[in-house]
Design a protein that fits this description.
CATH architecture: Alpha-Beta Complex
Strand content: 25-35%
Order of helices and strands: EHEEHEEHEHEEEH
Shape: globular
Distance between the termini: 41 Å
Number of helices: 5
Radius of gyration: 17 Å
Helix content: 25-40%
Oligomer: single chain
Number of strands: 9
Strand order of the largest sheet: 2-6-5-4-7
CATH topology: Cyclic Phosphodiesterase, Chain: A
């Protein structure tokens, strides 16, 4: 069964490249994420039956139809599981009304198909991974730049990716693209009423 997730592709911003270079200099043992793989995961679906992928894509297209581009502010460095023993190093994404709404709407469709979702939404852009104890220089960098700004992006599509394992880790394949060319930026999503948005 394909392992799927929805995400915003992230352009190769200069600030992200500079930070990736700084990470390399701080710890040469890091396994860097290539820029063409940069993305902000919206929903991780896990394994989905082949027979359900087409229906899922159709429902996701309905949700995104009429939705406009969603601005995203990249802010601060972080790590999973924590800064003291990082395994995944990332640039954070500042929470916003539009991002929260889109994540919830996509999640609702996914759950209706019987796919369980991750309990906590922590949007981020993964820049590096590691399996060793971090250098002191790297730890200091993560702590000192926990609130540093990295710019604003305005994704114009949501992508349904399939993650396939390979010798280097995971390879991402685009299954569907859902272009965000509507006019609902800052307003209501299709099917959303005023009460649901607190307006």
């Amino acid at each position: 069964m394909p392992r799927l997730f929805t995400a915003f592709p992230v352009p190769a911003l200069r600030a992200l490249h500079e930070q990736a270079d700084a990470f390399r200099q701080a710890d040469l043992r890091l396994r860097m994420e290539s820029p063409e793989r940069w993305h902000v995961t919206l929903n991780f679906l896990g394994d989905v039956a082949d027979s359900e992928v087409g229906s899922l894509a159709g429902q996701l297209r309905k949700v995104t139809c009429g939705v406009g581009p969603v601005p995203i502010r990249l802010q601060g460095l972080g790590a999973f599981p924590d800064l003291r023993l990082p395994r995944v190093i990332w640039v954070g994404v500042e929470s916003s009304h539009e991002l929260t709404l889109l994540h919830a709407r996509l999640g609702r469709v996914i759950e209706e198909m019987g796919v369980p979702l991750e309990p906590v939404f922590v949007p981020h852009v993964t820049l590096a991974r590691m399996r060793h104890r971090p250098s002191q220089r790297l730890c200091s960098m993560l702590e000192e730049q926990s609130h540093s700004p990295f710019g604003v992006i305005v994704p114009k599509e949501v992508v349904l990716y399939e993650s396939r394992p390979n010798a280097a880790g995971q390879q991402y394949h685009v299954l569907e693209r859902f272009v965000l060319h509507g006019d609902s930026l800052g307003g209501r999503f299709p099917g959303e009423n005023a009460a649901e948005q607190g307006s």
